[in-house]
Recover the amino acids of this structure.
């Protein structure tokens, strides 16, 4: 491996191989004449080089713009030299030495047909990056947004996809903004250099197409749900009583009988549809 000083402040744990589950079947992509790939946290290019070379040959009639985002200028400079060695005539690389949370995604997708976002995310900001992506996608106007493939900490991925029926707050975030969320592969610490202290997972999901106005409304509901989860071990009724007062909670349950069961449960026992009803009832009560 090339000489490189790993930087703990950037949460750098670079992949040593490319999991085959990260690839999208070639047949699903051949209908696109222009494809934009955005990779977050390219590091030294384990994913970048293999993905670019594979799709260059598999999609030889497709023009591919490959955007590499990394906050570490040293890693990005080394990657620039590495991609010069690969044969990918229909792939054009763009390099962004930026904090991904400050990147404007629609500037990379103005003339493309399909967008594919991938990345091995720094664990310390992986949730922020997922939220950033959902918001950025509201500004994108493309024919297709392909399944997102992110490598993150396994425990966090499990909360997003609700694989253990934990119904963590993150599972509501994922349900709001995406479908078909799943863990495609488990990656042990030895899959990275330096090896992290945790097990990782390749998570994939298909973003929903929503407007910016819809995003704002969903964020308001999620903010309400997040507040409910501050009382994780208590019934929702206790949180609502503190928020609204005993009298208003009584009025609310009389006006909206369907929520009576939900407020007797703990936050992780309540379904997203029930949270939607609760939020609507609380909002109406506070406005009147």
């Amino acid at each position: 491996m090339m000489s490189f000083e790993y930087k703990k402040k950037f949460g750098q744990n670079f992949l040593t191989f490319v999991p085959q589950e990260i690839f999208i079947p070639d047949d699903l992509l051949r209908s696109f004449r222009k494809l934009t790939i955005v990779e977050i946290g390219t590091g030294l290019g384990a994913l970048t080089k293999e993905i670019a070379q594979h799709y260059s040959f598999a999609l030889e009639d497709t023009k591919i713009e490959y955007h590499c985002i990394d906050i570490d200028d040293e890693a990005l400079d080394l990657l620039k030299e590495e991609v010069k060695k690969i044969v990918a005539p229909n792939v054009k690389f763009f390099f962004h030495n930026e904090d991904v949370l400050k990147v404007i995604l629609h500037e990379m997708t103005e003339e493309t047909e399909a967008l594919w976002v991938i990345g091995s995310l720094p664990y310390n900001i992986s949730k922020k990056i997922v939220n950033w992506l959902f918001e950025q996608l509201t500004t994108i106007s493309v024919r297709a947004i392909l399944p997102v493939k992110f490598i993150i900490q396994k425990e966090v991925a499990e909360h997003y996809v609700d694989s253990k029926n934990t119904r963590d707050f993150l599972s509501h975030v994922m349900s709001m903004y995406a479908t078909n969320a799943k863990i495609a592969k488990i990656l042990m610490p030895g899959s990275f250099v330096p090896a992290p202290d945790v097990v990782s997972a390749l998570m994939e999901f298909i973003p929903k197409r929503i407007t910016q106005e819809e995003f704002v409304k969903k964020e308001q509901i999620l903010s309400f749900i997040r507040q409910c989860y501050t009382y994780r071990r208590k019934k929702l009724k206790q949180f609502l009583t503190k928020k609204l007062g005993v009298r208003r909670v009584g009025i609310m349950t009389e006006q909206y009988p369907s929520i009576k069961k939900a407020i007797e449960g703990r936050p992780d026992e309540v379904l997203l549809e029930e949270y939607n009803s609760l939020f609507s009832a609380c909002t109406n009560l506070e406005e009147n």
